[in-house]
Design brief:
Bound molecules: inosine 5'-triphosphate
Structural class: alpha/beta
Radius of gyration: 17 Å
Strand content: 15-25%
Helix content: 25-40%
Number of domains: 1
Largest sheet: 6 strands, mixed
CATH topology: Maf protein
CATH architecture: Alpha-Beta Complex
Strand order of the largest sheet: 2-1-3-4-5-6
CATH class: Alpha Beta
Shape: globular
Number of strands: 6
Distance between the termini: 14 Å
Number of helices: 5
């Protein structure tokens, strides 16, 4: 049987990151009835996998089992070429327990400086997973390439947005209109694949 997501389906969005939740709601454009993981009091599972895909599946499956609803999860992060792909799946963890992304962005800058890196290329990845309670799951990945800039610029978006300039543009994700980011982001690219697979 082909997996399908019917319009209007109740979908739990398995994220505790408000910036991500907002973008996912914008990208899904009212196609589904979204229920936030926080609203259901769902626990945040430990992200024990070693890939974006693995952690997205883990989060979607945990939310589907705990809620009995179809669940959508995103695992994402910033990868820096000169840092061998770091922080990658550890992007949230570089911000520490206080989720301090000014600190995390400074850490990226300091590591680049310590490495004497001239290559400032980087990319964002988003793995989006959909899991059915007690059933199958689907996962896809989207990516956008760009260049890092220091100091950070702009206060829109979230996380590492103020240091990331997407390829071909000169504004950071932190400076761009949210809808412009949504039209090109790693998350939007992953969703386009999900749409092709499930809608
Ligand atoms: P959930 O697991 O509850 O969804 P989280 O913030 O822990 O929330 P991740 O483990 O996927 O999510 O961590 C991804 C981190 O990567 C996130 O905290 C951001 O700092 C960063 N990140 C991902 N997408 C981003 C984007 O579009 N812009 C800026 N930073 C982003």
């Amino acid at each position: 049987m082909a997996l399908k997501l019917e319009p209007g389906t109740r979908l739990v969005v398995a994220t505790h990151n408000p910036g991500k939740a907002r973008e996912l709601a914008e990208i899904l454009e009212g196609r589904f009835t979204l229920v936030a993981a926080g609203e259901l009091g769902l626990p945040e599972p430990d992200e024990t996998e070693t890939t974006f895909v693995g952690n997205a599946l883990l989060k979607a499956r945990a939310a589907a089992e705990a809620s009995g609803l179809i669940a959508l999860a995103d695992d994402s992060g910033l990868s820096v070429t000169a840092l061998d792909g770091a922080p990658g799946i550890y992007s949230a963890r570089w911000a520490g327990p206080d989720k301090d992304f000014a600190l995390a962005m400074r850490k990226v800058g300091e590591r680049l400086e310590a490495a004497g890196a001239e290559d400032l290329s980087a990319w964002f990845t988003s793995a989006l997973a959909v899991a059915w309670p007690g059933g199958p799951a689907v996962v896809v990945e989207g990516r956008i390439d760009g260049t890092l800039t220091f100091p950070p610029r702009g206060d829109r978006g979230f996380g590492y947005d103020p240091i990331f300039i997407p390829e071909g543009l000169d504004q950071t994700f932190g400076e761009m209109e949210p809808l412009a980011k949504d039209a090109m982001s790693h998350r939007a690219r992953a969703f386009a694949k999900l749409k092709a697979a499930l809608l």
